[in-house]
Design a protein that fits this description.
Blueprint lengths: L9 H22 L6 E11 L2 E10 L4 E7 L4 H15 L5 E4 L3 H10 L4 E4 L5 H16 L6 H18 L8 H4 L8
Parallel strand pairs: 1-4, 4-5
Antiparallel strand pairs: 1-2, 2-3
Helix pairs in contact: 1-5, 2-3
C-alpha cells in the first residue's frame, strides 16, 4: 500500500482487525477440510481486572482450535454450556474426548454426550495444554485482556487465524522446513 502512496496507521489496522477478524476466522473454519473425531478439552485461568475467569478450549487431534469460551465458573453448568456451544458449532458428536481429571467434564458429558468415550488422564491432554501457549504469549504482549467481552472476541478469532498462518511443524515436509535443502531428481 505504501508503494501506491497510501499510508496506513496502526490504528487503522487495529480497527480493520476488529471489524473483519471474526468474519475471516469464520471463513477459515468453513474451509477446513477435515475435523478429527478426537477432541482435547481443557481450561485455564485468565485474570481480567483482578478477577479470575476460566478460558475453556477445545482442540482436535491435529491441534486445530475448535472453539473457546470465557466464563466465570468452572463447574458442571459451565462445562455443559461449553459442550453445547462446541457441539452446535461443529455439527457432530466426537468419537472420543480427552480431558484432565476435572469432575465437571464427566458430569456434563453424562448429560449431553452419553455415547462418547471419555478419557481422563493428566498426560493425555498435552495437545490442549500446548494450545494455551500462543494465547498466553499474546496475552502478555497485549499487557492483559481489558474485559471479558474483549477477550472472548479476540480469542474466538485468534485461534483459527493463527492456525492458518502458523502451520504445525510436524505436518510440514523437510523441504518446507529448511530453505537450504534443494530437492534432487
Amino acid at each position: 500500500m505504501l508503494y501506491r502512496g497510501i499510508e496506513v496507521t496502526y490504528e487503522s489496522i487495529r480497527e480493520w482487525c476488529q471489524k473483519f477478524g471474526q468474519q475471516y476466522a469464520n471463513q477459515l473454519r468453513r474451509q477446513r477440510p477435515f475435523i478429527a473425531d478426537k477432541w482435547h478439552l481443557d481450561e485455564v485461568v485468565v485474570t481480567i481486572k483482578k478477577q479470575q475467569y476460566y478460558l475453556w478450549r477445545a482442540v482436535d487431534a491435529e491441534g486445530n482450535v475448535l472453539d473457546v469460551l470465557l466464563q466465570r465458573h468452572r463447574d458442571t453448568r459451565a462445562a455443559e454450556r461449553f459442550f453445547r456451544k462446541l457441539l452446535k458449532k461443529q455439527g457432530f458428536v466426537p468419537r472420543v474426548i480427552v480431558t484432565d481429571k476435572l469432575k465437571s467434564y464427566a458430569a456434563a458429558k453424562k448429560q449431553l454426550m452419553k455415547r462418547v468415550e471419555h478419557r481422563q488422564h493428566k498426560g493425555l491432554n498435552n495437545r490442549a495444554e500446548n494450545s494455551h501457549q500462543p494465547t498466553r504469549i499474546r496475552e502478555r504482549r497485549m499487557r492483559r485482556f481489558k474485559s471479558p467481552g474483549q477477550a472472548q472476541r479476540f480469542l474466538s478469532a485468534f485461534g483459527p487465524i493463527r492456525d492458518h498462518f502458523h502451520p504445525k511443524q510436524h505436518q510440514l515436509t523437510a523441504i518446507a522446513l529448511s530453505p537450504t535443502i534443494t530437492p534432487t531428481i
